[in-house]
Amino acid sequence: MNRTPLVAGNWKMNGRKDLLAEMADALAGYAGAAEVVICPPFPYLAAARSAMPETIGVGGQNVSEREDGAFTGEVSAPMLAEMGCGYVIIGHSERRALYGETDAAIAGKFARAQAAGLTPILCVGETLQEREADSTVEVVCGQLQAVIDGVGIAAFARAVVAYEPVWAIGTGKTASPEQAQVVHACLRQSLAENDPDIAQSLQLLYGGSVKADNAALLFAQSDIDGGLIGGASLTADSFIAICQAAE
Ligand code: PEP
Predict the structure, then answer these.
(1) Residue 79 maps to a domain
(2) 37: which of 57, 115, 159, 224 fits an S-S bond (Cβ 3.0–4.6 Å)?
């Protein structure tokens, strides 16, 4: 099946108004075939939606698993939707590791995102220790299955999954295209065991030190449908080059 490539930029806690302006200018000239999403920090979401061309998606980097209420510092899914977001990153490894997000909380966030009309970008990935212990597939498929069990496979008809090996995030160490493809194929197989049609249509992204010069080979793999980009999404030139590599 021909899946539309998708490239999403995760700014993390980086970027100011000047980056937004630079990126909006650069993306205004982008007419490629890839779907493009940028995920700036919460305070910039509304400005991003107004500045970006309509064809460019805007997403949050996190969302609360709760309904609106007395949860200081949290942001709900309907708030993201109202600010013009179409996507939200869920279960990034930094949030799992630094903020103790559990699979149950991540499934809750996924459900809230979908109920508000957002497309979740669910991140899964193994640590270096887990890779060295040969448990990569067990870990990443376990993280995926935990959310499938929580929300039901039908919910994945409108979702994106990003495989992000923790050891490759922000380290400059990229999984080789072959290493990444092996894991992507296992993730797609896991999805297929739940629903073959959804497995075929779902966009599976790779993330972890993707740069303009390694993107094309990664994206050429049959089960890699684009990328979730951290550091290289912080300059317009490298981000656009990666979007072009995904076409
Ligand atoms: C990320 O954090 O989602 C990511 C992929 O980061 P980087 O590209 O910087 O490794």
Answers:
(1) yes
(2) 57
Contact 170 CB / ligand 1 (< 6 Å) = yes
How many structural domains comprise the chain?
Answer: 1
Q: How far apart are CA 108 and CA 188, in angstroms?
A: 22
Residue 75 belongs to some domain of the structure: yes
Rg (CA), the chain: 17
For 39, the domain range is 6-235
Q: Which ligand 1 atom sits nearest the alpha carbon of residue 231?
A: 9
81 part of a folded domain: yes
Residue 233 CB–ligand 1 contact under 6 Å: no
Tell me the pLDDT tens digit for each residue of 163-185.
999 999 999 899 999 999 999 99
Strand ranges (DSSP E) for the chain?
A: 6-10, 35-39, 57-60, 87-90, 119-124, 160-163, 203-207, 226-229
As given in the structure block, the two tokens for residue 200 are 């075929």
Domain harbouring 148, CATH code: 3.20.20.70
